[in-house]
Design a protein that fits this description.
Layout: E1 6-11, H1 16-31, E2 35-39, H2 40-45, E3 52-53, H3 55-58, E4 63-68, H4 70-83, E5 86-91, H5 106-114, E6 119-123, E7 126-132, E8 135-142, E9 145-150, E10 157-163, E11 166-173, E12 175-179, H6 187-190, E13 202-208, E14 218-221, E15 226-230, E16 238-242, E17 246-250, E18 255-260, E19 265-269, H7 276-282
Parallel strand pairs: 1-2, 1-4, 2-3, 4-5, 5-19
Antiparallel strand pairs: 6-19, 7-8, 7-18, 9-12, 9-16, 10-11, 10-15, 12-13, 13-14, 15-18, 16-17
Helix pairs in contact: 1-5
């Protein structure tokens, strides 16, 4: 049993339905005797301004409920992972592969949450560091993927990659995706990478439109340390993108190091949503027969 005494609520305020469901959940949880910490926007919207707090404090709760799409959960994961706070996603987005629960299942899900009737699934995250002049200039954490690509023009990028300090390849491609097993169903899959079950400890390295028939997705063990240097022109603008949400410009003299983060993201599962394999069928229509 996972005893939950305090719940934080995070909402995508650009989705009116998310605000409404979050308000209903807040009052329902209070009736169940659960204390709350709310994002200021939903606290004011719900008439509970006294429960409003900054995002960092919201994510220190025993559990954090995220109302929105997968993007909202990805943003929240970067705050919750270092704190060890488990997250439960209520899907108010278009796809909802990460978010566990459909909104129509909200109330039975909250009952199970308050009773501790769920499982916590630890998901591997990635840590990227930009090494500039011998020092770590920027460090970020991603739940889905880290992408190195051209920042503006549709031009080929040349990236030299080493694994554990040993040179492996120099890619000529539109970019490189380094994905977690959780992120294998996102950008990496669209670029031709494999589907990986979230429990498999690996990193998925997928070139984007490589200019070589032999450049294909590669699985590396989760304890590998990947490093990339840009071998393109100094005039090229190269962008490092974290979960499709945060972009950092890098230069040709920088080294990008990517490894498994010490802080996994914790997702609340087995609480009424579909399993990974069920999502392959319901979301990705996996292995459906063609209609002739």
């Amino acid at each position: 049993m996972n005893k939950i005494r305090c719940v934080g609520i995070v909402v995508n305020i650009n989705k009116p339905a998310a605000l409404d469901f979050a308000r209903e959940a807040a009052y329902y949880l209070m009736d169940l005797g659960i204390s709350l910490v709310l994002q200021k926007s939903i606290a004011e919207y719900s008439g509970l301004a006294e429960l409003g707090a900054c995002d960092d404090d919201v994510c220190k709760s025993d559990a954090v409920i995220v109302f929105g799409g997968d993007g909202t959960l990805l943003r929240t994961a970067r705050l919750c992972a270092p704190l060890g706070s488990p997250m439960l996603g209520i899907n108010l987005g278009r796809f909802g592969f990460l978010n566990e629960i459909a909104p129509e299942l909200l109330y039975p899900t909250l009952d199970r949450l308050s009773n501790g009737d769920f499982t916590i699934s630890e998901r591997m995250t990635l840590e990227s560091s930009i090494i500039r002049n011998g020092e770590a200039h920027q460090t970020d954490v991603a739940l889905n993927e880290i992408v190195i690509a051209h920042g503006k023009l549709a031009r080929v990028v040349r990236l030299a990659m080493s694994v554990n300090g040993k040179p492996l390849a120099c890619y000529s491609a539109d970019g490189i995706i380094v994905a977690t097993p959780t992120g294998s169903t996102a950008y990496s899959l669209s670029a031709g990478g494999p589907l990986v079950h979230p429990s498999i400890p690996t990193m998925v390295i997928t070139p984007i439109c490589p200019h070589s028939l032999t450049s294909r997705a590669l699985l590396a063990p989760d304890d590998a340390v990947l490093s990339f240097t840009v071998e393109s022109s100094e005039d090229d603008i190269i962008q490092l993108t974290i979960d499709g949400q945060r972009g950092i410009q890098v230069t040709c003299t920088d080294k990008i190091v990517i490894k498994r983060s010490d802080a996994p993201a914790k997702l609340i599962t087995d609480i009424g949503g579909d399993t990974f394999y069920q999502k392959l069928q319901s979301k990705l229509h996996w292995s459906e027969s063609l209609i002739y």
